TrEMBL record:
Gene: murF
Keywords, comma-separated and alphabetical: ATP-binding, Cell cycle, Cell division, Cell shape, Cell wall biogenesis/degradation, Cytoplasm, Ligase, Nucleotide-binding, Peptidoglycan synthesis
Name listed for the protein in its UniProt record: UDP-N-acetylmuramoyl-tripeptide--D-alanyl-D-alanine ligase
Protein family per UniProt: Belongs to the MurCDEF family. MurF subfamily.
One GO cellular component, as annotated: cytoplasm
Entry keyword annotation includes Cell wall biogenesis/degradation: yes
Length: 481
């Protein structure tokens, strides 16, 4: 197996000085996940990566990318010394992209970009050697890191691009130089940094600025801001493929949610297609259809990819569904957990509530005879000056009426909690840790429980505690002795 980078190649790509004649098989920015043979990149983030170079080399790193020889590191250690480590990582990414013959797709969107990226990874991997970003590596260091890790023989590459502020997407798109660029959706996320949703759409549309000549834009046709996306794609010289209920190219016909399955009927370039997802969610159906459009735009086989979408599962915290055994000694004492605690905005919350509303609780198990649909909702962050009204208005959504109880976490969600009908108003807690302490009294076997909130609300602690609640509740066999 050939090296990912040799000392000479890395030095030429970055303009740096290589010490030693080394080669590396991977690229890492974290000593906790570093594999033997990796190039350790000493980025400066919360802590200076130079403080961990000695540890990285001790764990078997093939070399380290640094701006100086760190204290405690031998003068003749295998290093690549550059002026600026982040700029050098970008240069490595640029060089990896330049030497690759891979067909590249870049994905952005207010909601669904990581799920869509993983759908594309799943289906493209069955059609060729595929490389994709890990986790949500979609920012100013995540995109170049993903590119720098790309093997030479990659046939398909999937690059996720995100943003928090204006001006972030275009430089990353130009670095990735995709043949296909996809916008999953445009929604009210990061409104603190933008005047309105049209501003968000223009920033998302900047992904088309990085398209290779003759590139293809894959656009959600169902948005109020679709014209902004299409105008930007046309300005970039791209041809456009549309997906959604208003699209002709990739038309979403019907979506049927049954338990934890989604069955989709679509018209794909004039042909009827029926495919399924092994998870519940109309939003996942839309993302899947968009992924098929992207596969075809890359030159892949969308007909072959459609049934392969059933192999995909949502990433952790993004709608994953699991049974939590409440009492192993009692058959059927199971809680159905929908963990969507990674992030939240109004669009993704509505999609998650639709999944919860379609779920079927189980009766005659647990302490309470009737199973319930329960939502535990944390604050949605970065929604701008109207955040209080946005949270309050959730109480008027038709989907809320289909739930039994809504528990709320955080100062913003307190406004929803106060607006709820008393029959549905559960517990409010200022912090997730406080909600965790009350969980044993809030849920029961037979319930379907959705946990949803922005990452900063820390409601992921609630989801994790639910996984462990069965062990905490298990009866003590000696308590009656």
């Amino acid at each position: 197996m050939s090296a990912l980078w040799t000392a000479r190649e890395a030095a030429e790509a970055t303009g740096g000085t290589a010490q030693g004649d080394w080669q590396v098989s991977g690229v890492s920015i974290d000593t906790r996940t570093l594999a033997e043979g990796d190039l350790f990149v000493a980025l400066k983030a919360a802590r200076d990566g130079h403080d961990f170079v000695a540890q990285a080399l001790g764990k078997g790193a093939g070399a380290a990318l640094v701006s100086h020889i760190p204290e405690g590191v031998a003068a003749d250690a295998p290093l690549l010394i550059v002026e600026d480590v982040l700029a050098a990582l970008e240069a490595l990414g640029r060089a990896a992209r330049a030497r690759s013959e891979a067909r590249v797709v870049a994905v952005t969107g207010s909601v669904g970009k990581t799920s869509t990226k993983e759908m594309l990874r799943t289906v493209l991997a069955r059609q060729g050697r595929t490389h994709a970003a890990e986790a949500s590596y979609n920012n100013h260091w995540g995109v170049p890191l993903t590119l720098a890790r790309m093997p030479r023989d990659t046939q398909f590459a999937v690059i996720e691009i995100g943003m928090n502020h204006p001006g972030e997407i275009a430089p990353l798109a130009r670095l990735a130089r995709p043949h296909v660029a996809m916008v999953t959706t445009v929604a009210a996320a990061h409104l603190e940094a933008f005047e309105n949703i049209e501003g968000i759409a223009r920033e998302k549309a900047a992904i088309f600025e990085g398209l290779e000549p003759g590139g293809i834009a894959v656009v959600n046709a169902d948005l109020d801001t679709t014209p902004i996306l299409e105008e930007a794609a046309t300005r970039a010289g791209a041809s456009i493929r549309r997906f959604g209920t208003k699209a002709r190219d990739y038309h979403l016909d019907t979506v049927q949610i049954t338990g934890d399955r989604t069955v989709i009927r679509a018209e794909i370039q004039g042909e009827t297609a029926l495919f399924k997802l092994d998870c519940a969610g109309r939003h996942f159906a839309m993302n899947g259809l968009g992924a098929l459009a992207a596969v075809a735009a890359l030159g892949g086989d969308a007909g072959r990819a459609a049934p392969d979408l059933a192999l995909w599962q949502p990433p952790a915290g993004r709608g994953t569904r699991e049974d939590v055994m409440m009492d192993e000694a009692r058959q059927g004492w199971v809680l159905d957990l929908i963990d969507d605690a990674f992030n939240a905005n109004p669009t993704s919350l509505e999609a998650a509530l639709e999944v919860l509303a379609a779920a079927t609780p189980r009766d005659n198990v647990g302490r309470i005879a009737r199973g319930r649909r329960i939502a535990i909702l944390g604050d949605m962050l970065e929604l701008g000056p109207n955040e209080i009204a946005v949270h309050t208005d959730i109480a008027t959504w038709p989907l809320i009426a289909q739930l039994d109880t809504v528990h709320c976490v955080g100062p913003r969600m307190r406004h929803l909690w106060q607006a709820l009908p008393r029959a549905q108003r559960g517990t409010w807690a200022d912090m997730a840790e406080e909600m965790v302490a009350e969980l044993p009294d809030l849920v029961d076997a037979g319930d379907v429980v959705l946990v949803k909130g922005s990452k900063g609300s820390r409601v992921s602690l609630v989801a994790e505690s639910l996984r462990n609640i069965g062990r905490r509740r298990r009866p003590n066999n000696n308590e009656d002795d």
